[in-house]
């Protein structure tokens, strides 16, 4: 299909955007690295060349106290302009436009100097903020204007004022975080003075020919958040103050509702942007879990929004827009919303990158130049590591033959995509298949690689990416056919009874519990998903939440299974899950009434059930089945045979390290090996 609405220019009067795609703001970690702005310039330039209509940088503070972290980036002084010029010049050379996002962290600041409208600690940071004085508030308004003027001097085409997600401006707007009794608190009129005066002061400072985007929290998803009437009122006033575009903000960071994770349905929040569309005439941007040109086109063509914002999809593929324009969406490396290499990295103070695109934020370091010595390479196993290596090696000019014993490619991704909320793994398999065809990787399905083939076909190197096999537990009764492993369940090779015990509470255990609980994924049923998480599309209550006192505020279907999730460790269940997604997995299992037990010792399985002990107290779980989710081991059955050929043998992915299934490491290993050979 073509994407005429997505690719249509947007006229802002004083300037024109070449299409309706905004690369949304995201922090990369390069902002604070030594030499990071040079790398950021290349990063943003690639996205500008990729055709995006407008780029917004990661959040930059207008002053010291507004920094996200002690070493966070700010734009407050003339001497800081020069490094920003490196970015704007690079983007403009590529015929792109770019805005700087001005973000004051407020009580989300991860340092002891944080300030907020009131002295109320955030539940997600360890520091209690200082309540701002009236003088500090006036100073902050001036700082926003100063930063905007400096941004214009640095060559930015505009600014985005971050007024959502629970940061400072949002904290002033909400009565739950603003309990002041002066002119900046109390009534709604007083609470919205800060955003209005910030926009007014910026417009006065930069003039009319400068883009001002305001990121408006349209759906707070927290108790006592803004009402819909207040959202509309503020939007209309912002329009009068001269904003060029209003961007949609969804959920505070402390909200206990997922907003961008892979389990969130595509375009799940476009309805709230559409709800505001008839209230204002300024262009509106829809956001969150928009990751394909098809869903973006649908949102714009149906009139839900004037533009779409995509952030992580431009980590996954800098050429997203160009590929859509060329009508080759099958070549787009789709963001799967996993957060593992982007947000999880940022929260760990590491450089952001992308699970499906390890080059993201490493554009100056990870490049696939033509090989000086072209080789014939045999690759064993078409899982994520094997497919990634094959594609990257082929782009360098190597002759690559990929052997897969099964009738399909994908490896562990074929299991992962069966988990409710992880359907996006389909897209990665589709992308890899398209790239293998494009780069002429010879794929041999239903074919095992053995030493005779290696010798007969005169290969130069062998890459083993043969993956993992489930770890077995040799306990009394575990040879019973009612004791199965997670792969058998996901492949549909066994039927489970009503009562099931899962041994192992890592990522596999959590995923399998979710798989058993949901016969049909709620991610594929947006309205059901909204109800499951207590989100009110009718917006009758503050924050867009269904009424807290309503017994049906959260709707989950009756359970078909009684599930026990067990782990040997005494630590918190799911402790090693992703920082930004682990709480979601725990919440889902809680919704489905999964019983979790830690500190478990396993004794045996018999007709009575699974015999365990906790704190030296014996217990029998009367279960019909036991499913082993206790990890996996590397599949190295052919390693010695490959070594005997005398050729160099390289191990990547699970066959190298069989820790928790780690596609991020596997794909990056494939890329790095492709560069090394």
UniProtKB/TrEMBL annotation:
This is 2,4-dienoyl-CoA reductase. The lineage of its organism: Bacteria, Pseudomonadati, Pseudomonadota, Gammaproteobacteria, Alteromonadales. Residues 6-328 form the NADH:flavin oxidoreductase/NADH oxidase N-terminal domain. One of its GO terms (biological process) is fatty acid beta-oxidation, unsaturated, even number, reductase/isomerase pathway. Keywords: Flavoprotein, FMN, Iron, Iron-sulfur, Metal-binding, Oxidoreductase. It holds the Pfam family Pyr_redox_2. Its cofactor is [4Fe-4S] cluster; FMN. It comes from Shewanella psychrophila. Its EC number is 1.3.1.34. The keyword rRNA-binding does not apply. It is an enzyme of class 1 (oxidoreductase). GO terms for molecular function: 2,4-dienoyl-CoA reductase (NADPH) activity; FMN binding; iron-sulfur cluster binding; metal ion binding. In the N-terminal section; belongs to the NADH:flavin oxidoreductase/NADH oxidase family. InterPro entries: Aldolase_TIM, FAD/NAD-bd_sf, FAD/NAD-binding_dom, NADH:flavin_oxidoreductase, OxRdtase_FMN_N. Residues 376-659 form the FAD/NAD(P)-binding domain.
